[in-house]
Amino acid sequence: MRVLLATRNAKKLRELRRILDATGADVEIAGLDDVPAYPEVPETGLTFEENALLKARAGVQATGLPTIADDSGITVDVLNGMPGVFSARWAGRHGDDEANLRLVLGQVAEVPDEHLGAEFVCAAALCIPGGREYVTHGRQPGKLIREPRGENGFGYDPIFVAAGNTRTNAELTAEEKDAISHRGQAMRALADILHEQIES
Ligand code: ITT
Ligand code: NA
Fold first, then answer.
1. From the alpha carbon of 72, which atom of ligand 1 is closest?
2. Which residues are catalytic?
3. Keywords assigned by UniProt (predicted)?
4. Quick count: other Cβ atoms within 10 Å of Cβ 163?
5. For 147-166, what is each residue's pLDDT tens digit?
6. Atom of ligand 1 lying closest to residue 48 CA
7. Burial label, 106 (beta-carbon count in 10 A; 0-12, 13-18, 19+)
8. CA atoms within 13 A on the CB side of 11
9. What's the gap in Å between 147 CA and the centre of ligand 2?
10. How far is the CA of 160 from the CAs of 31, 64, 96, 140, 194, in angstroms?
11. Looking at domain 2-199, which of 3.90.950.10, 1.10.10.10, 3.40.50.150, 2.60.130.10 is its CATH number?
12. What is the number of the ligand closest to the CA of 74?
């Protein structure tokens, strides 16, 4: 089966591909580079789930292919769950990871270390031509640190330490991150659904 992974974030795409590959899913993966017709999708949803569905539906509409999309972000306890669905554009310009991370650090500058709880959240949607839609979820609890560390991963990974870890997400290997990440959990659950679709 050919499946479209509908994301314009190259680092996210690499993770999605890697996680899906590791499940042994018998799929041929297409990216948006292969699909010129995929539109700009306004992320107007108020939840990760709504946005993931908007992006995945757009893929089905543009290509007729079963489409997977992920909407994800970080929720910071003392920021009442923000940046949340606004994580990619928290500092204004969409996808400016460095500015987004700096803004969050500035916003928690006066917050005591013991109150720096945060969580990565991911909703992964699979939409299939004919109308079937599935959404799975993953979360990675942890805390923020003030000094970014590590070169791996992307986004807020350098300032996030998962519960039970001492290294930041950006100091983990790809395999270590995938094993515990919000995206790893959501995508493995979605891969199970994909398998059932392939078999039926
Ligand atoms: P697409 O919508 O095209 O998939 P995007 O980057 O805009 O790309 P999102 O709207 O889901 O994707 O925004 C996710 C943002 O949340 C992303 O830009 C990061 O800043 C942050 N984020 C999500 N997953 C992350 C992870 O695993 N590690 C670090 N930051 C992450
Ligand atoms: Na989003």
1. 11
2. 71
3. Hydrolase, Magnesium, Metal-binding, Nucleotide metabolism, Nucleotide-binding
4. 11
5. 999 999 999 999 999 999 99
6. 11
7. exposed
8. 15
9. 25
10. 28, 38, 17, 10, 31
11. 3.90.950.10
12. 1
Reply yes or no on whether the pLDDT at 66 is more than 90.
Answer: yes
Q: Is the CB of 185 under 6 A from ligand 1?
A: no
The strand pairing partners of 74, in sequence order, are 120
User: What's the gap in Å between 44 CA and the centre of ligand 2?
Assistant: 9
Protein residue with its CA nearest to atom 11 in ligand 1? 71
Determine the Cα–Cα distance for residues 186 and 190; give it in Å rounded to an integer.
6
Contact 150, 167 (CB under 8 A): yes
Report the nearest atom of ligand 1 relative to the CA of 94: 7
- Tell whether pTM > 0.90: yes
List residues forming the annotated binding site for Mg(2+): 71
Residue 197 pLDDT level (bands cut at 50, 70, 90): confident
